[in-house]
Design brief:
Length: about 425
Amino acid sequence: MTTHEPTSGGSSTRFDPWYDHYADRTAGLSASEVRALFAVASRPEVVSLAGGMPYVSALPSELVTGALDRVMRDHGPQALQYGSGQGTPELRERALEIMALEGIRGSVDDVVITTGSQQALDLVTKLFINPGDVILAEAPSYVGAIGVFRSYQAEIAHVLMDDDGLIPQALRDAITRLKADGKTIKFLYTIPTFHNPAGVTLSWERRLEILEICRANDILVLEDNPYGLLYFDSPPPNALRSIEEDGVIYLGTFSKTLAPGFRVGWALAPHAIREKLILANESATLCPSAFSQFAISEYLASADWKGQIDTFRGVYRGRRDAMLSALSEHLPEMSWTVPNGGFYVWLTLPSPLDSKEMLPRAVKELVAYTPGTAFYSDGGGRQKIRLSFCYPNEETIRTGIRRLTSVINEELEL
Ligand code: PMP
């Protein structure tokens, strides 16, 4: 199985002749224990509910080839050249248009195009984190963000969530505790909408409350929103950035609404921060891919991109429904979250089952999932499993859940 999410880092050992040469920050680049298994699980007979790959086959390829042809015909020399470290003005305008769908207003000057939102996570962390600084993050949190934070030697403080997202009182308590310990809290990293991995969405009331808590404590908010437009039933509450401009850095991406292969995302930063962000972007990559930016602008100008997002929503809604009904049928005594959008269901195993220990046996039974431990920096999540419904079709999802059920039942009988 391939997975788009980071599964590894440098696993330096005494057998590595450069062991003593690595920078201290590489200690945070820990190899994922599940990486080896994921390699085994890439066999076609294994049903993978583990990766988070968008179903790009739902994007008609002629929409892309048409856009690419026009890029070469109309903008060839520019598209093949280096470009601005901030990104093209056309695409920054487009990003604003897309963000307006979630209530966000902003200036094109404050949009910075990046190489996926993953790179924006890296740049923001680089700008703000000294070793030992604290980043508040949901419990659980996105595995790729945890990896970035570790690589800058941040301390990650997980804050509890429930079905309505991050719990405001838990955030207050964490801030009080960390301050009493003399810690420096730099920002709150949050995925308020269709959370990865938990699948839940922060309620509107809590959005207001959480922004208020961060404002009162002088804590910047890093809002990561790759899935907001992929809702199934009703649209989610507007983005945090639509409520608060000065204290929120917003991250968006074309990876889920178009295709991750372009590797294009963006940050909308408070005006004071965006200059540093551009400098950091230039120092990391000189500029985001001009070719990808031209291609996406061309696609947005010529294709019914909102209709295409509706198509993706329809596909993912059907897959979510297939997963939820299979879970209800086969594992009725267990609990899981019910996502109204995005890619993931978060399942709680009955004790004493351990999702990490169970994974090799699941792969033997030809089903793979991501154990909850990947989404915590503190060893939590042993009783949790992330199930992705984005890539396999409905029939395959049902097969996967049936296999998972027999693994769980066998474990319970042991
Ligand atoms: N944030 C979250 C929450 C994600 O799920 C992902 C992709 N899985 C990313 C960031 C990175 O996305 P990209 O770099 O493709 O924009």
